[in-house]
Amino acid sequence: MAKIVLIGAGSRNFSKGIVTDVLLYPELRDCTISLMDIDKERLDLTANFTRELVKQNGFKTKVEATTDRRKALQGADYVIVAIAVGKSRLDGQKITEKYGLPWDDTVGPNGIMYGNRHAQAIVDIAHDMEEICPNAWLLNYSNPQAIICWSLNDYTKIKNVGICPNARGGAFHLATRLNIPFEECSYWCAGINHFSWYLQFKWNGKDAYPLLKEKFGGEGFYNGPDVGIKMDDEKGYLVGVDVVEIEMFKRFGYFTNGSGGHIPEYLPYFSRTPELFKHYRLDDFVELAKHMSAKRMATEAKIKQELSSHHQFELTREFRWTIFAVNVIHSLETGVERRINLNVKNTGIITNLTNGCCVEVPCLVDREGVHPCYIGDLPPQCAALTQTSVNQQLLAVKAIAEKSKSKLLQAMLLDPLTSSILSIDQTEAMFNELFAWEKDYVKGFK
Q1: 204 Cβ partners below 8 Å, 6+ apart?
Q2: Burial letters for 96-107: b for 16+ Cβ neighbours within 10 Å, e otherwise?
Q3: Rounded to an integer, what distance in angstroms lies between the CA atom of residue 158 and that of residue 284?
Q4: What is the pLDDT of residue 297?
Q5: Which structural domains are found in the chain, ordered by start?
Q6: pTM for this entry
Q7: What is the pLDDT of residues 289-311, one digit of tens each?
Q8: How many C-beta atoms surround the C-beta of residue 426 within 10 A?
Q9: Cα gap 406→413, rounded to integer Å
Q10: Distance between CA 20 and CA 13 in Å, rounded?
């Protein structure tokens, strides 16, 4: 049976979801789950939970736990990567906030530096895989997806996909806004990670965009009771109206899937002043991040308590964003056909974005592999906005591979939000501060 390796297993909530989702499939229960993390204390908690869940259900799943990455990779068929490298991204944001820039983790100054750290680390994992398990799949959850997966595609030989829940999450949110059952909806979503477009959104096979235009075409939504985004813990998902996504729809004709406040990272329209930040309710996402962080800590404490009290864990089937990686594995193992939005190399899939860049598109997955669906041209207005970020990602990927300080700065200078706030000299000054702060991860850059 397959060996599934989870690198970053100390992320307890994520790991709990992966393990539970794997064990929900009878066809995967005889697999080996190898848990790897550099933090032994956190790793041991995940391992204890996994072994207890396997034991309570009487499964034959083999569970390994190690801090040795190369040991974990021995005999691997699938390597799921969910790591956070080095210093907290929030500390880096203290520098950019001083210059008037809000949060970012996908593009922009922090996204580029975050990408540098993670691309280096994950490319190193892939090089180990080339030696130890060259036929294994690498399934990446770490951000920023585009920079990481583009680096993997260009500088390693390992089969890989990037996985993000936003395409499904955004479609679910559209359905809840219309008060229609999500299971009756279908969608066709393509672009780049955290900035894809719902080219089609249907309800029972019929175009649902007219319903969205009717609901959100005017100005009334600004004063509605459900304006703003928050987490409904009872329902388990985000509720409310994301004003930025409505504005994008009204101006550009399509909804985006930047769920969780990602779209303002890519564009200069919504957060270049405190007044705009407040007007577009982006402070809701700051509060949401705090809420989710507290919720993660509470969940971790709960796992510890449950393990100490010999709690009976359940294999529950509620939606978890970890299911996407497990569904990819299940389809590759069993041949069950699925369509999943994944981050893959653009080999003529989206014809008006740079060939070779990393795109997020619907993919068919079966025993033979991952088969990206042809999209063709994005609508020109969508392609124009998206290509701006692709250009920035291209320079970032080249900077990381070549260890080029000048290209890293150039990538930052291309950022639309940064250039709407800072002069070229201010951007360089901010870059120099970030570069010095990241000294452990820019060694050898010239």
Answers
A1: 184
A2: beebebbbbbbb
A3: 39
A4: 72
A5: 3-165+317-331 (3.40.50.720), 166-185+194-289 (no CATH), 380-441 (no CATH)
A6: 0.94
A7: 666 666 667 777 777 788 778 78
A8: 13
A9: 10
A10: 11
